[in-house]
Amino acid sequence: MALDNYYLLGRSGLRVSRLALGTMNFGTGGFHGPYGRTADQAGAIFHTYIDAGGNFIDTADFYTAGESEQILGKLIAESALRDRVVLTSKFTNSVDPGNPNAGGNGRKHMIRAVEDSLRRLQTDYLDLFLLHTWDRITPIDEVLRTFDDLTRAGKIRYAGLSDVPAWYAARAQNDAVPMVNLQLPYSLAERTIETEHVPMAQNLGLGITAWSPLASGFLTGKYRRDEVEGVAGEGRLTGESAPSRSWSDQHWDLLKTLQSVADELGVTMAQVAVNWVATQPGVASAIVGASSPEQLTSTMAALDFDLPAHLRADLDTASAVPAESVYRMFTPEYQGWLVSAGTRVGDKPAGYQPPVLNWS
Hints:
Layout (H helix, E strand, L loop, with lengths): L5 E3 L6 E3 L1 E4 L16 H13 L4 E3 L8 H13 L6 E6 L15 H15 L4 E6 L8 H13 L3 E7 L3 H10 L5 E5 L11 H8 L2 E5 L12 E3 L3 E3 L16 H17 L3 H10 L4 E6 L4 H8 L8 H11 L12 H8 L21
Parallel strand pairs: 3-4, 3-12, 4-5, 5-6, 6-7, 7-8, 8-9, 9-12
Antiparallel strand pairs: 1-2, 10-11
Helix pairs in contact: 1-9, 2-3, 5-6, 7-8, 7-10
């Protein structure tokens, strides 16, 4: 299992696993409670990941109303693993309804959030602290100054962003001590970040961590199309708490291609989907969750095979997002016709910069 191969996160010296453990379901309280796991169940999942060589763990202050951090803190402390893991938490969402300063990205909330997270996680520092969501109103220089102060105070080692516009991340990267991480939704069913975010991150040194690489379970193949309800099957995409989302003809056709690729390789649809995300340009790590150790073990096996170029091309075609508006002008077809006028022009030849691997 390839979790014991580590790579640098963005433009930093921080080594992380290519699959990160998402712990949104650790605990049974709050918004995420319906799919939560008890402390004992979460512990089994946690140790399965650690035993496989994984070191990159993702949580947030509002996951299961703080239980996720509490459970993680106890697990890490009891296992004496604090120096082994790269511990990530996030802030933005309100933790105290009715209090306007208990949410958002202002300095007051940022400092409160990190202090509360440190207490729940039983540690004196976070390896990575992320702004969870752009709140649209807090001045960016206030956020960046606070990140810098928290770093200087030793409360965080690195800073990053999650779920922000590409222009916001670019400005943050140019105005302060560099961010190292950009966490975004990315899957075969959701490729819109390729338009702006991925090239921006590649150019400015932000390692992307992809959340929901299975599109909330849609890409596992366990759901079927229902003409009345839209989606049928057991899981997060059905029932009263299901996320509001429509699935197009392209999405359902994509499942057929995904199934075909999985059958040809002798693996599961979920493993193909995770492999595709984890090996996409700009992606440092894919965040995977699990409801059981067995499910996590199966997911981690997604890195045990290579996705052949012709099968990746099939998946790329089936999941492609057409370029719209001004972005049509940046396609190879448009530029080959009008900008390069039929000549063959590229930035660098293949093999120009091979990877540096510190293993044989």
